[in-house]
Amino acid sequence: MREDGPEHFRPFVKAYSTYIYRTVYAVLQSQHDAEDVTQEVLLQIYRSLPGYRMDGWKAWITRIAVNKAIDFKRSRARKPEQLIECQAIMEQGCAGLVEGMLDAAPSPAAEEIALLHEEHQLLVERVHALPPKYREVVLAFYMDNKSYEQIAEDTGLEKKSVESRLYRARDWMKKHWRKEDFE
After folding, report:
1. Is the dihedral of CA 173, 176, 178, 182 positive or negative?
2. Is the overall model pTM greater than 0.70, yes or no?
C-alpha cells in the first residue's frame, strides 16, 4: 500500500469501482469472479499510480481491468482440478446439482446486451454529430479524461477557450438532444 494511506484510497474506489466491475464482468460473465478481480484491479491501479504517465486515464484503467480479467480467465482454464471436481460430482449422481449451479450464474440477457450496444451506438453517433470545434473538446474531456490544461496544450487553445467550448458544447447538447433518446 502507498504511504498516503486508506483515506486516499476510499475516494478512488468510490469513483471507479462500478466502472471497473462492469468492465471485468463483461470479460468474465461471473458476478463472484468479477467482484474478486475488481478488488485486485483497484489495488493494482492504485499501486501503479506513481508510474501513470498522465495520458488517457480511462483507457489506462480499462486496459488494466481487461488484462487482469483475461489473466484470471486463463488461470482458471489451466486448473484441471475443476474438471476433476465436476467429474466426481457427476459420478456421485449429482448432475442436477451441477446444472443448478450453472443456471444460478448470472449472465446478461441478449436483450440487455443489444440495448446497451444500441445506446452506445446512439451516443457515438450523437457525439460525432456535434460541431467539430465542440466535438474535439468533448471527446478529450469526457472520453480521454483530459484536464482543461491538457486539452489547451493539445489543441493550441487558451484554457479559457477550452472552458468556453465545453460550456457551449453542453448548451448545444441540451438544445439539440432529447433526454428520452438516452433513457
Report:
1. negative
2. no
